[in-house]
């Protein structure tokens, strides 16, 4: 099973933490969409897109990467970290357009000091925490066992 995770984690590295938790014990290629804009994805069996939520969407670099590089008939999973609420729609519509299969979604809170939240010391402080990391490890384990996982 060859897996790639394309990600952007620009606020506090929250999303990177959950990806690193997966990469720690699984063989995955990590692709930073803020640095890499083109990549042949044909050799991957499983492709993940991971991002913080910014203005209700995945990071523009991840959306752009998916629009440019995603090919049809791939198994896709999505992961996001958020200060307020999860938001998968921006990616799901691309997956639909490209005729791929969404096989899993994971989300958890991520420390957020954007805008006025900074004044109160941020929200979702301490996240992702150990429990979030254990949950993402379990999510990925089920995913590669062939399950469809929606957490
Ligand atoms: C510019 C900006 C916009 C954001 N917009 C949202 C939002 O619309 N909804 C939300 O729940 N969190 C929002 N957040 C909080 C982030 O989604 C949260 O902190 C996330 O964990 C950041 O991930 P990262 O550290 O991997 O970049 C925003 C943060 C920033 C910096």
Automatic annotation (TrEMBL):
Residue ranges constituting the Flavodoxin domain according to the UniProt record: 5-89
Molecular function in Gene Ontology: FMN binding; menaquinone-dependent protoporphyrinogen oxidase activity
GO biological process: one example: heme biosynthetic process
PANTHER family reported in the protein's UniProt record: PROTOPORPHYRINOGEN IX DEHYDROGENASE [MENAQUINONE], PROTOPORPHYRINOGEN IX DEHYDROGENASE [QUINONE]
Protein name: Flavodoxin
């Amino acid at each position: 099973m060859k897996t790639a995770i394309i990600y952007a984690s620009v606020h506090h590295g929250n999303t990177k933490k959950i990806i690193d938790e997966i990469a720690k014990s699984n063989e995955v290629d990590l692709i930073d969409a803020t640095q890499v804009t083109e990549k042949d994805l044909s050799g991957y069996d499983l492709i993940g897109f991971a991002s913080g939520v910014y203005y209700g969407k995945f990071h523009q670099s991840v959306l752009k990467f998916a629009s440019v590089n995603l090919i049809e008939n791939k198994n896709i999973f999505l992961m996001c970290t958020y200060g307020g609420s999860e938001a998968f729609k921006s990616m799901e519509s691309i997956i639909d357009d490209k005729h791929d299969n969404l096989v899993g979604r994971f989300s958890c809170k991520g420390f957020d000091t954007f805008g006025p939240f900074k004044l109160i010391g941020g929200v979702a402080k301490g996240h992702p925490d150990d429990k979030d990391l254990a949950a993402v490890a379990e999510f990925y384990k089920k995913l590669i066992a062939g399950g469809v996982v929606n957490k």
